[in-house]
Design a protein that fits this description.
homodimer; mainly alpha; Tetracycline Repressor, domain 2; 8 helices; elongated; DNA-binding
DNA sequence: CCTACCGATCGGTAGG
DNA sequence: CCTACCGATCGGTAGG
């Protein structure tokens, strides 16, 4: 449990600020104020640039998802259980550091090249591996014969609201949310019995 | 079929620009260029301000959803069919004017008061009415006993990826997308037979 | 629709 | 970490 470096404090405050205002509307002067510095120029002792902060946030979160899916691929073989584990991964990452994942979700497009292409390649790789699991489930008869691309994006998109929920309402328990998202995505809204 | 006014052309180009770069990163100079004006100042003959363009886009789309749910409430009574109609409404609105609904989804937070509160009230109203339908379905046994807030946001969020799909891949037919989103949300990923 | 222009604010650097 | 500062760009106005 080492103390946070000032750089870490700045990056975390940047994530919060980018999440509050959006990357473009966030100013380095406001960021300075939020970490107790009088001058924006002082920030440059801790980070290289505004975009460097964005890069760090985006790639750190990409790493979490890549690591997560790698673990799931190696340790679980049933596609149904793999999807459940992936849903759990998304909920876990989102609730563990909500502001950071919000920036990862919504602000990555402000990356400039070559980081933008690098980021999109990581995302593409993740999506392909996720889709491969869906494909396997369809082939083995575990899943319905749904277009895998449609299923992939519907599920990924459904998992994104978690960060919205966590920021605002939070009127329900995390365990209920987890259970019900999983139920809805795996078995649907309609009652069958 | 009257000709588009220059104002309409400007608003549509603004929607595209806001969707491409985000509201804050979009400049009036670039907007002018996109509609064939040499000077940003010329834009102000057609719109009052940058934010006025955003307001128009956001409230126009809010209206579409409000009108849609009103029609569904009056003409359909079965909650299962109502949810199917709502899913269809979201897909219809998104595919009919994809850039406009993207701005509506992602850029509303740049509205300033009092429009921001007004917009959020409209959204809240829509969500409450959507949730009421879910509640009714649960009470009548048509739907599973899922937390209605969780179901609401999971479904709404799942429907948002349609604008992402429409912009990028579009490797599958709209009818397949519609059918499979509906199947996934109503009956889930798992095969039951 | 253009010319001319303005005050405000931006991200960032030099130097200590 | 601050002082001092810079060039660029921003949304918008006045006037024709």
């Amino acid at each position: 449990m080492t103390a946070k470096t000032k750089k870490q404090i700045v990056i975390e405050a940047a994530a919060k600020l980018f999440s509050d205002k959006g990357y473009s509307a966030a100013s380095m002067r406001e960021l300075a104020g939020r970490v107790g510095l009088e001058q924006a120029s002082s920030l440059y002792n801790h980070i290289k640039s505004k975009e460097a902060a964005l890069q760090e946030i985006c790639f750190e979160n990409a790493q979490k998802f890549t690591d997560g899916i790698t673990t799931i691929e190696s340790n679980i073989s049933d596609p149904g259980e793999q999807i459940r584990a992936l849903i759990n991964l998304h909920i876990q990452v989102a609730t563990n550091d909500i502001t950071s994942v919000t920036v990862f979700n919504d602000e990555w497009r402000h990356l400039s090249e070559p980081q933008l292409s690098e980021f999109l390649a990581l995302r593409k790789d993740y999506e392909e591996r996720f889709k491969e699991i869906i494909n396997k489930g369809i082939k083995t008869g575990t899943f319905k014969n749904i277009n895998p691309t449609v299923a992939l994006h519907t599920i990924l998109s459904a998992l994104k609201w978690i960060h919205y929920w966590y920021k605002t309402g939070r009127d329900s328990d995390l365990e209920i949310v987890k259970k019900d998202i999983m139920l809805l995505l795996m078995s649907g809204l309609s009652s069958n019995d």
